[in-house]
Amino acid sequence: MSTFLERATSNSRAQLAATAIASGAVVAGAILGYQHLQDQKRASELKESIPGGSDGERLTAFGGSSKKDKEDLRNEQLARRAQSGDYDDELILEQLARNRVFLGPEGLDKLRDAFVVVVGCGGVGSHCTVALARSGVARIRLVDFDQVTLSSLNRHAVATLADVGIPKVQCLKRRLLAVTPWVRFDLRLEKYWDQAADRLLEPWEGTGRKPDFVVDAIDNIDTKVSLLKYCHDHGLHVVSAMGAGCKSDPTRMMVGDISTTTDDGLSRATRRRLKLRGITQGIPTVFSTEKTGDGKAELLPLPEDEFQKGPVGDLGVLPDFRVRILPVLGYPSDYAQVKGRDKMYEGILAAVQGGEEKILRHMTGGDVSITLGLKTPVTVSDLAFLVEDIYKGRSAITGLPNRLTLMRWRKPTESTLLRIGEGASEQKSSNLKLSDLVCMTKEEATRHDKEVLRGDKSVEEVYDSATIAKVEKLLKETAVYEKYR
């Protein structure tokens, strides 16, 4: 070893290489250090350029106000009095008078005694929090790791320019104390995640009171699914907000179980991941059935020329600020659709039932009695899942979105009848599975029934190879999710 070192040190090339490496390391360190100092300088200059408030107010490391103004201090003093009981209850009831008329005295008392957790305090969560506080909810826990940015101001319920840079949970408390000083806020400045779930959703301190409701206002799919599963498994009431990006028709807003959500990418992804975890229903959601189409805005990625300007992280106003890549608002242009599709699903259910009866009569030589009391093991929810999630609201044959229905793809090779019991207690049902059904227009279904299901042709004789491959792929996808329904 010593011999090697002696030769290396005596070798001029080795010495030059070592010197070059050492010099390069020093130069690189100097450059990185200079860049860091320049970033700090630019951030400092930007902060200093923002006019300060009274008494030489400046910004903290978060970019938020380091000193509270007189109004904030007065609101906090009033809130301390109200929460300690030094606040006339008649004043609160007067402020909530219209709520009391609408809800009734008992309903208002329940709200005033409630404990609600809001996870996610952005565009959805902030408006929800404001509504809860103004409605009389007395204990609200806010969970969010993010800060108010300039781009937040187009949708946040209460944030102002003065709030840019401070945590969203702090912003909500700061503004709502001026409106409802008796409300107690428990702020959790952190991201919801599995390991923190027990703590973030724990009972209210000193009372042992579990949350009466949890509001899921998260826009991250992994975190959303994690929260919903935790609430489902622990028996916590939860309501989940689905996606509304580029949607602008308020008449299309729906409230329903997670199993009934349609026309929304976030709800579709959430529903599928929950199914993989064994959860298919039991979670109330708020979602929009508005579809994209001609004249509708769509979410677009950041233009390539913006990426050419440098790393995305450098595009923020201040270091470590999140960059908003996707737009939030959508604008309609001559776009309108009929609200809801319940009647369509009910019609499809009737068509599927009728189709099973026709097949069974055809296989038994026209015996009508065989189909009396026949039941089909599918629901409206099942069919909505197929049409919207698997077939995306279009025929698998031609892609047409009009007059849709569902029917068997292949002709059964054996009886479809399942019988249990005898006599008056006999139960008759079809062996139909969701993965047997394909979406078509009614005209296509009529031909398919005549030529394939009750005819002598196979699907290979009626359709081209591309169509068959497409349908078979969709049927396999259906089979994967069918076991979780």
Automatic annotation (TrEMBL):
Membrane topology: Multi-pass membrane protein
Entry's localization field: Mitochondrion outer membrane
Sorted UniProt keywords: ATP-binding, Ligase, Membrane, Mitochondrion, Mitochondrion outer membrane, Nucleotide-binding, Transmembrane, Transmembrane helix
One GO MF term: ATP binding
Record bears the keyword ATP-binding: yes
Domain THIF-type NAD/FAD binding fold: 98-280
Major subcellular site: mitochondrion
Alphabetical list of Pfam families matching this protein: ThiF (PF00899)
Membrane-spanning residues: none
A GO cellular component annotation in the UniProt record: mitochondrial outer membrane
Family: Belongs to the HesA/MoeB/ThiF family.
Protein name: THIF-type NAD/FAD binding fold domain-containing protein
